[in-house]
Amino acid sequence: MKLKPRVLTDEDLVGACVARAEAGSSFVDSNLQAERREVTMYYQGKKPFPLREGGSRFVSQDVYESVEAMKAQITEAFAAGNNIVSFRPQNAGDVDLAQQATEYCEHVMFAQNDGLEIINGVTHDSALNRVGVAQVYWDRSSITTGHTFEDVPLEEASQLLSDSAVRLTDKPVQKDAGNGVYTVSGEFERIEDTSQVRIEVVPPEEFIVSGRFKDLARAPYVARRRRVTLGELVDDGYDPKVVYAIEGEEDDLALDEERLQREEDTVVTGLDDESEDEAGRLVTVHMSFIRIDADGEGRQQLWKVVHVGRTLLDKQKVADHPFVTYSMLPEPHTFYGGNFAARTIQHANTKTTLTRAIIEQAVEATNPRWQVARGGVANPRELIDNRRGGIVNVRSVVDSVAPLPQTPINPFVLQTIGMVDQAREDTTGISRLSQGLDKKALSHQNSAGLVEQLTSNSQVRGKVMARHFAVQFLTKLYLKVYAIGIENDRQRILEIAGNFVEIAPQQWRRRSHVQVDMTLGYDERDQQAQELLAYDKYMTQTHPRLYGEQQQYNVLRKALLAKGHKNVQDFLADPATLQPPQPDPKVAAEVAKLQKEVEVAEREIVLKEATAQHKVQLATFEAQLKAALQESDIDLRNRDADRRDDETANRIDTAQAELELAIFQAQNAPEGNSKVSAIISPNS
After folding, report:
1. Averaged over 359-380, what is the pLDDT?
2. DSSP code of 294?
3. Which terminal residue of the chain, N or C, has fewer Cβ atoms less than 10 Å from its own Cβ?
4. Is 383 exposed, middle or buried (0-12, 13-18, 19+ CB in 10 A)?
5. Predicted local distance difference test score (pLDDT) of residue 521
6. For residue 97, is pLDDT > 70?
7. Per its UniProt record, what InterPro entries does this chain match (predicted)?
């Protein structure tokens, strides 16, 4: 039948959560609970049970050893806090902020919370129960301390009470001290805010999922159920009227088989839950995160619903759920991966059976069964009572009593046990070499490099599981811690790269890029540090021009960080923060002397250059002058010749004119004048 979107009531919303929780619990009870109980008993060394009364009770610890060995490898890789997971800068100006975000998450994980126990608990649950779960949330808490003040001046009292962290517990008493001075006495409480990001490992029986999904981020329903008292619910801020109206037991986890099995050796079941008052009554509260269309808008949204049974305590829309998971043996297309510990049960059973056979054979060889001829022993009790120095009366020393023949132990039993151990190593990926127990590999004949290579190769599957832990768990955990810090955390001071820096998480921006350092195996960080030091030596010797102080500082800093030394400033000084070196007085004097000598030499060179240039200019001028004189002399001679030619021509013209004049006079003289005179130039 086709349903139309509608607004859900509180009863409908809680009913949907209860139905999902019951479906998820039924799936766990029918599919996983028996497996978890079986694996836990093998891990605790309680199985396999003895085959017969009086037989050997030896139990092989293959399951325990495999789980603890893998936990040790993963915990050792991450528990040191070596910034294996870090935020990736989004641009050049985001480098410092990305480093601050990384250090903040490291501080939350390993300073505010017990990071070692978180990693150990999640890997333990993943190995035994397929999935390890942690919850990340903002824990609002405070510490209140009482104080008194007496005869304090009114100004100081006003200044004290103006602090937002101070709260009066009684009406203060004011006194007149005379001369217009008033004093105040009273009591107050100082409230220190200790709220922080809290990370908790969720027990497997408290975690519920329901629906078809592959990624927990898209799960239709995910919840955590836990046992709390009514008083704790009131302390968490829920309405006391609603809380104390809860009727019935409403305690689903009181008789949970997984919890009882885990606590049966340390907790007296049923006696620790008794309470003398209503505030101490235990109930099971569900914190459900369900994707549902509660507003009737036609699209599903994530709702956080807190309820005890069908009693609603709180509901609100949220952007994300607070759970992070890790599967040690992830399988594609499914949320639950493989069970690591369950794969070693067959090896534990086989090894236990074979070892018990060897032990029982040795016991029977030490205390054999006897065959006695009828009437061969006067008092059979003397034979049964195996006392040292005891006497047994027999009729015949030769044929009255003889040991009962026994089947000898199979000579291939020890070889079979070795084959089982090898099969377990192949199944789990945990070899004796990776644990430092292989005497052949650790022989003095093998070099350290060969041992390191063999050990690293034997840890391939362990390193893959560790990388799954980093990608599946730590990256998502850091993103959730970062998001919660932006919404709730206050300013604080952290040590970053040797410097104390004040950070303000509420001013940060959203991030979604996280990167993982994959150097997780045996001595891989040492190898990385050695490679950096070799690079430093190579660049210093071969390319000093390309390898300055800042580059060398960066390389050495990264080498120290790879070795786990976060206080780099104790070993190296950043060249960018150093003052220029002060010159040595003797060196400065020598430099000044050399500078003066250089200046004198430069002046002499300049003078010589000027003199040479002057000589060149003088020679050029003399050559030009000589050429000009020669040209002037030639011109003068040419002019003198022209003048002489002109004078000659002029004399000729003058003589010609005088001659013509004389002839003219002679022709025109009177007839009676027989003498005619004419002026003739002497030069003509």
Report:
1. 85
2. -
3. N
4. middle
5. 52
6. yes
7. SU10_portal
Q: Residue 180 in 3-state DSSP?
A: coil
Closest CA to 401 of 365, 380, 377: 377
CA distance 563 to 527: 10
User: What tens digit of pLDDT does each residue of 240-256 get?
Assistant: 999 999 887 666 777 77
Phi/psi at 408 (5° precision): -70, 155
352 and 474: one domain?
Answer: yes
Supply the pLDDT for residue 684: 53
Q: Are 313 and 184 contained in the same domain?
A: no
Asked if the structure places residue 607 within a domain, the reply is no
Give the Cα separation of 136 and 324 in Å (integer).
8
Same-domain pairing of 123 and 26: no
Phi, psi for 224 (deg, rounded to 5): -130, 130
Q: Which domain holds residue 32?
A: 1-40+220-320
Residue type (1 letter), 598: V
Residue 668 has pLDDT above 80, yes or no: no
- Closest alpha carbon to 85 in 520, 516, 524, 564: 516
- Whether 252 and 270 map to the same domain: the answer is yes
- 194 pLDDT band (50/70/90 cuts)? confident
Q: CB count, 10 Å around CB of 234?
A: 15
Name which of 470, 437, 466 is nearest 451 in CA terms.
437
Given its phi and psi angles, is residue 407 left (phi above 0), alpha (psi -120 to 50 degrees) or beta? beta
Summarize the confidence of residues 506-533 as an average pLDDT: 77
Cα–Cα distance measured from residue 193 to residue 329, given in angstroms and rounded to the nearest whole number:
41
3-state secondary structure string, 142-171? EEEEEEEEEEEEHHHHHHHHCCCCEEECCC
Q: Which pLDDT band holds residue 272 (cuts at 50, 70, 90)?
A: low
Q: Is the pLDDT of residue 607 over 80?
A: yes
DSSP 449-465: HHHHHHHHHHTHHHHHH
49-56 contact pairs (CB < 8 A, 24+): 51/356, 55/356, 55/360, 56/355, 56/356, 56/359, 56/360, 56/363
Token couple for 683: 């030069």
Average pLDDT over residues 257-265: 75
pLDDT at 136: 96
* Nearest-angstrom CA–CA distance, 574 and 571: 10
pTM here is 0.74
| 198/114 Cα distance (integer angstroms) | 10
Cα 286 → chain centroid: 32
Within 8 A by CB and 6+ apart from 422, the residues are none
The verdict on whether omega for the bond into residue 48 sits within 30 degrees of 0, i.e. cis, is yes
Q: How many domains, in total, are found in the chain?
A: 3
- E strands in 154-300: 166-168, 173-178, 181-193, 196-202, 207-210, 221-229, 282-292
Residue 52 has pLDDT above 80, yes or no: yes
Domain check: are 84 and 35 in the same one? no
First to last CA, the chain: 157
Three-class HEC string of 252-271: CCCCCHHHHHHHCCCCCCCC
Contacts 24+ apart (CB under 8 A), 535-540: none
Do residue 356 and residue 460 come from a single domain?
yes
Same structural domain for residues 439 and 451?
Answer: yes
Question: How many whole angstroms separate alpha carbon 417 and alpha carbon 351?
Answer: 6
pLDDT of residue 49 exceeding 80, the answer is yes
What per-residue confidence (pLDDT) applies to 278? 85
CA–CA dist 501, 104 (Å, integer): 11
Domain assignment present for residue 198? The answer is no
Percentage of residues in the chain having pLDDT higher than 70: 88
Q: What is the pLDDT of residues 622-664, one digit of tens each?
A: 888 888 888 888 888 888 888 888 888 888 888 888 888 878 7
pLDDT of residue 451: 47
